[in-house]
Design goal:
Length: about 220
């Protein structure tokens, strides 16, 4: 038996065990459920999106600073991104030497625990506050701040779109989990190199204005 045949035999045996367990216990799910014989590391991830409630592939946790994307976590299992916020902010501090003035996050990050932790460190978190009624007539300053926060947060959303459209992040053809993770990491590396080249280009022609964005941090 070849190495690949033996590997397939092990995968099929595990699939049989999972199916038998679900049948005997009359259950419809099981931890680490295998959905692909050739890619047993892939897990179904519930996304809740229109027309695509379940996705298959790696789940990423990333942050964006000064136009560069930092790939903080790659997992083939579903996970709650809100648990990564503290580690990502601490990584920012280790990289820059200080905590960010503000972080711009998706709604899933805005948990009570994360908000309390950011408040303790003097970090402003974007988004509406938890609990209570929103103000009926918010001031112009509050509206302007909310619009600015949303524009900044959209940058990380745009980076994922750019990675999929221009750098083939949505068409990773590697079969193994380690080669797939390498391909994903290389995609973001090339995208950051491209951003660096663009900055150097505008700097060379005197059109690039160096804006101090070290106090701004956003996550995805």
């Amino acid at each position: 038996m070849t190495k690949s045949d033996y590997r397939m035999l092990l995968v099929v045996t595990e699939v049989y065990r999972q199916k038998l367990s679900m049948y005997e216990k009359k259950e419809h799910s099981i931890p680490d459920r295998i959905v692909s014989l050739k890619q047993p590391h892939i897990r179904p991830i519930i996304r809740g999106k229109a027309g695509k409630s379940v996705e298959f592939g790696a789940k990423l946790s990333a942050s964006c600073l000064q136009g560069y994307v930092f790939l903080d976590r790659i997992s083939w299992d579903n996970f709650n991104e809100s648990g990564d916020l503290k580690r990502q902010v601490e990584a920012f501090k280790q990289f820059t030497g200080f905590y960010p003035e503000s972080i711009h996050v998706d709604q899933i990050y805005r948990t009570k625990e994360n908000r309390a932790w950011c408040k303790e460190l003097g970090i402003r978190m974007s988004g509406v506050r938890l609990g209570g009624r929103p103000p009926k007539n918010p001031s112009k300053a509050i509206k302007k701040q909310a619009q600015s926060d949303e524009r900044i947060r959209n940058l990380i959303e745009g980076k994922f779109g750019e990675a999929k459209r221009r750098f083939s992040l949505g068409r990773v053809m590697a079969k193994l989990n380690n080669t797939s993770e390498t391909s994903i990491a290389i995609t973001f590396l090339v995208m950051n190199l491209s951003a660096r080249v663009r900055q150097a280009f505008w700097l060379f022609f005197g059109l690039f204005h160096n804006k101090n964005l070290w106090d701004v941090f956003w996550l995805k």
